Structures are given as C-alpha cells and as structure tokens.
Amino acid sequence: MDAFLASHAALTIAWALLGVAALISVFLVTLPSTKLPLSRRRPGAGQQGSSVQRLANAATATVEKAMRGRSGSVDSILEEAGVTTPAKDLIVITGAAALACFAFGLVLGAPVVGVLMALLCPVIGRMLLSVLADRRRRAFGNQLDEVLQMIAGSLRAGYSLPQAVGTIAQEAAKPVSQEFARVTNETRVGRSMIDSLDDVAARMRNEDFYWITQAIGINREVGGNLADVLDNVSKTIRERSQMKRQVASLAADGKLSAIILMLLPFVVALFLFVLSPNYIMKLFTEPMGWMMLAAGAVMLGIGGFWLTKVINLKY
Asked: How far from chain centre, in Å, is Cα 127?
C-alpha cells in the first residue's frame, strides 16, 4: 500500500480527483439556482451541456433523491443563515471539497492527513453556516429599534398593521426586509400574522422581537393604541441594547484570550510544519502520533466548551 501511494499512478489519480472536485465546485457555485429549465424555455430542445455539467446535474439529482423528505433540518439552517443556494448543491459542493482535500493528502503522500481534512470539510461548512446565521441574527437585532419606529409612524399615518408590515418589507434593510416580506406573503395566503411573527422570533432567536409579537397579539385582542405600545417597547429594547453593548465591552478581553488560546495549537503546528516538516509529520504517520492528535482534539474541545461557557454571559 505504501509503495502504491508513493507511485506515479497514485499521484496521477490524486491530481485527477483534485481536478474533478474543483470543476464540480466551480460549476455548482456559478450555476444560478433559479434558472428556468431549457425544456420550458424552448419546447422540443434537446439536453445540452458539457460532460462536467451533466456530471454535476447527476450528482445533485442523486443527492436530491437521497434527501427527499429528510432535508427539513438542513433547509432550516440555510434559512437562518440567509443562504439561497439549494441544500442539494451545498451538499455536493461539500462532498467535492472533501474529495479535493483527500486528493491533496494523496499528493502530499499522507493519506491520513487527507482523510482528516476530508472529515473536517462538513464540520467547517456547518460552522460557516452557524457564523452566517449568528451574524444575520445580530443584524436583525440591531435593526429592531428602527423597525419599531417605522411601524409606529406608519400606524400614526393611518396605515393598518399589515400595510405597516408591508412597508417594512419594502423599505427596511436586510435581513429585516426579508423576514417581513415572508410575513407579508404568508399573511396574503391566509396565515395568521401573529403566527408568522412568532416564527420570525423563533428563527431569529430574538427575545426582544418575541416581546414585540406578544404586544401586538395582546393589542389585537384587547384594543388600544398600538403605536404608543410599540414606542414603549422600543424604549425598553433600546435600554437593553445599551446594556448588551456594555456587557460585550467588558467581556471583550476574555473573548480575545479565548480566541488566542484556541488558535495557538494550530499556529504552532503550522510553524513546525514550515520549519521542520519531518518532525511534525510523525504525528500523522505514527500510531502514537495519532493517539496524541486524538487526545489533543478531545482536550481542545473540552477547553473550547469551557471557554465558551465562561465568556458567554447571561443577563
């Protein structure tokens, strides 16, 4: 096996895998997801496209069949992150990236490294989606004060609540405009506005917006001046935002220390890989090195979990 991995045939196979993975990834990234099928644009026209395009289409079709009825969690993650790329395309792209990482490990002559890099691809993809979702939620929370003022102003101008929500969907910035446009569309097809707003609060995981939906629901049941209620809620949210910023500034030192401690092992490993690759590669070629890597990963995970609990303050 070692002789095959060191042979010219293994190197050729590795470069071929890299090329196929790169072509599939580039094609799926540049392929528009809302493209109208050729059969609808030009009836009777035959299927066209290169071999890479047919391969990518076959891969996405296979993934779509495998995910049929079981893609709810993936779709919800993509909705929270604001990603419009279909889940099947992202899965194929992740698989192509994993294939490319494995081929890169074969090129380096270290198949264990390639396997580890391939296994890390889905994990890194999930982490990127989580980062995008958290960033989107923070942007949504920062816009709430402005949104409440716009709704209150629209109500005082004589608009109804659905009209005020539609105004937010048209004039506000993303991601608020996207979420309120979804509320407007769901309301038009007969769904209760309160249920749609509750879904937005759950999707954005925003407690302040949940208070807003509760205030709107109570007002619709008992009556009253909704504009004044929203002004009071806006004042409360503004004070809470000020407290959040103060807590974030006090916890910034701890967060920076946690980031440095988590990145330090990887920086040291990269430094040793550049200066003394034979020394560091023993971790990936010797059984004892594999055990040390596994123990280090476990300890790094425990330390990361502990640091996360320390710096994430609840208030």
From this structure: 7
Distance CA 158, CA 153 (A): 9
The token pair that represents 253 in the structure block: 């030192």
Contact 176, 82 (CB under 8 A): no
Secondary structure of residue 256 in the 3-state scheme: helix
Residue 277 to residues 111, 184, 273, 285, Cα–Cα distance (Å): 16, 58, 4, 12
Residue with tokens 């009209």: 163
190 conformational bin, left if phi > 0, alpha if psi -120 to 50, beta if neither = left
Contact call for residues 159 and 150 (beta carbons, < 8 A):
no
Which residue, 245, 259, 264, 262, is CA-closest to 313?
A: 245
Token pair of 249 as six digits = 């500034």
CA atoms within 13 A on the CB side of 37: 8
CA 160 – CA 181 distance, rounded (Å) = 16
Per-residue pLDDT of the chain (315 residues; tens, 9 = 90+): 555 555 566 556 666 666 666 666 555 555 554 455 555 555 544 445 555 556 556 666 665 666 665 555 777 888 888 888 777 778 888 888 888 888 877 777 777 777 888 888 888 888 899 999 999 998 998 888 888 889 999 999 989 899 999 999 998 888 999 999 999 999 999 899 999 999 999 889 888 898 889 888 888 888 888 889 888 888 888 888 888 888 888 888 888 888 888 889 889 988 888 888 888 888 888 888 888 988 988 998 898 888 888 777 766
20: which 2 tokens?
Answer: 């196929």
Look up residue 46 and give its DSSP letter.
P
Give the C-alpha separation, 106 to 25, whole Å.
Answer: 19
pTM score of the predicted model? 0.67
Give the residue from 208, 240, 215 showing the smallest Cα distance to 229: 215
